[in-house]
């Protein structure tokens, strides 16, 4: 699995902690860090969220972990990229269902909301979840995709 990570300066420390965890995980073949590298970089959350989501849309990464102050801004941004499904998930069950029910490729965290140890635990679990295209959830996700393909200019 190839994972892209990104954060604004509110989320950089948590992003770095998750990135290092992923780099040590044998289930992850590649971790791409799009920044920011430090809190001095004040690029706004949409810049990072959109860049990471576009990486997934281009097929250059399978999953993404995005961090901002709340996790909300990067989730909204990532969801604007056609084909990408992103959500904030600050608990284990939501993180699991974001993959199994919604086929989300992207999980987001708010560094001002969740601590690093819980976020890392959720990410370690989340990496192990997969979407079943034969599940009852698949048709529901397909409905969203069909809407997107009919209405969103690419
Ligand atoms: O949390 C954020 C966006 O959802 C971001 O880190 C801070 O945004 P701001 O409150 O607009 O500065």
Automatic annotation (TrEMBL):
GO terms for biological process: carbohydrate catabolic process; carbohydrate utilization; cellular response to carbohydrate stimulus. Its EC number is 5.3.1.34. It catalyses: D-erythrulose 4-phosphate = D-erythrose 4-phosphate. One of its GO terms (molecular function) is intramolecular oxidoreductase activity, interconverting aldoses and ketoses. Pathway: Carbohydrate metabolism; erythritol degradation; Carbohydrate metabolism; D-threitol degradation. It comes from the Bacteria. Belongs to the LacAB/RpiB family. NCBIfam families: PRK05571.1, RPI_actino, rpiB_lacA_lacB. This is D-erythrulose 4-phosphate isomerase. The lineage of its organism: Bacteria, Bacillati, Actinomycetota, Actinomycetes, Pseudonocardiales.
């Amino acid at each position: 699995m190839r994972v892209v990570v990104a954060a604004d300066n509110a989320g950089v420390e948590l992003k770095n902690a998750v990135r290092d965890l992923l780099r040590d995980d044998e289930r992850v073949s590649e971790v791409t860090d799009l920044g920011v590298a430090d809190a001095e970089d004040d690029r706004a959350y949409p810049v990072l969220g959109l860049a990471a989501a576009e990486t997934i849309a281009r097929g250059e990464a399978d999953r993404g972990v995005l961090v901002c102050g709340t996790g909300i801004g990067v989730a909204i941004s990532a969801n604007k990229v056609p084909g990408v499904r992103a959500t904030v998930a600050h608990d284990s069950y939501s993180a699991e269902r974001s993959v199994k029910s919604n086929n989300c490729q992207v999980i987001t965290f708010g560094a001002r909301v969740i601590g690093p140890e819980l976020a890392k635990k959720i990410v370690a679990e989340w990496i192990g979840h997969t979407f079943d295209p034969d599940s009852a959830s698949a048709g529901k996700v397909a409905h969203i995709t069909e809407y997107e393909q009919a209405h969103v200019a690419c």
